[in-house]
Design a protein that fits this description.
This protein is an alpha/beta fold. 36% of the residues lie in helices and 17% in strands. It has a six-stranded parallel beta sheet with strand order 3-2-1-7-8-9, with helices on both faces. A three-stranded antiparallel beta sheet has the order 5-4-6. Strand 2, helix 7 and strand 3 form a beta-alpha-beta unit. Helix 1 packs across helix 10. It is elongated.
Length: 254
């Protein structure tokens, strides 16, 4: 049985999508849990699943530069988990909106599922695992090339002997394309936050730049402290279930 109010909220979001010309989207780990990728810090999260005792150290850029072997012991499991995952209904739903709307997806995730679902305008604010490069000479490596090198050595090395690393943002490094993220949000008629608890800054600050309708969809608590404006639609529900209902309402509006 659908909890009271969610039916109406799905209808309201469908109307907002229909009326918007530019849509901004911020996604977090919650959009990918339906694809089989757990969040990082939860009781059944990636850190527990892959038996990481010190998560902060794993993604510390200084530790990586000193000894990348610790990171790569973790990254093998993370990479395989993410590569096995398939885009969810909501990933595909967002990609489908691009046919008639200007949609910019800003994601905190590094799994590449938005692109695999077909979204073209994706800003990976924390980078992504599909692109890799040499820390010394900058040479690019595909995910397939990285996997082959990881089969040969605990730490993959470039032809110049430099350490290869995924193009993700480590602790101690700036996030990517932040100015463009705020610009996309400020230009949006509708800003959707999907699967993010809004605990991590600066990503959590981005939605407030939108002067349009602000919708937040997440299964679990959301930290609204960083939202310096009113949330117009707040839905706590399973993300795929909620957006299937939104999709049904869009068909009815057509």
């Amino acid at each position: 049985m659908t909890p009271l109010g969610l039916k109406e909220k799905a209808e309201e979001l469908a109307r907002a999508i229909e009326g918007a010309r530019r849509i901004g989207v911020l996604t977090g780990a919650g959009i990918s849990t339906g694809a089989g990728i757990p969040d990082f810090r939860g009781p059944k999260g990636i850190y527990r699943t892959l038996k990481v005792e010190n998560p902060e150290a794993i993604f510390d850029i200084r530790r990586f530069n000193e000894d990348p072997s610790e990171f790569y012991r973790f990254h093998r499991g993370l990479m395989e988990m993410m590569l096995k995952a398939e885009p969810t209904f909501t990933h595909r739903f967002l990609a489908g909106l691009e046919g008639s709307k200007k949609v910019t997806v800003i994601t905190q995730n590094v799994d590449g599922l938005h692109q695999r679902a077909g979204s073209k305008d994706v800003i990976e604010i924390h980078g992504g695992i599909t692109h890799n490069f040499c820390s010394s000479c900058g040479k690019s490596y595909s995910i397939e090339e990285l996997r082959q090198l990881m089969d040969l050595s605990d730490v993959p090395r470039c032809s110049c002997s430099g350490t290869i690393r995924p193009d993700i943002v480590f602790f101690g490094e700036p996030v990517k394309q932040l100015e463009r993220c705020f610009s996309a949000a400020s230009e949006s008629d509708l800003m959707m936050v999907i699967g993010s608890s809004l605990n991590v800054t600066p990503a959590a600050l981005i939605p407030s730049s939108s002067k349009g309708v602000l919708a937040v969809v997440n299964l679990g608590e959301v930290n609204t402290f960083n939202l310096h404006r009113r949330v117009d639609i707040m839905a706590e529900d399973d993300i795929d279930r909620f957006f299937k209902r939104v999709s049904e309402n869009l068909k009815n509006l057509a």
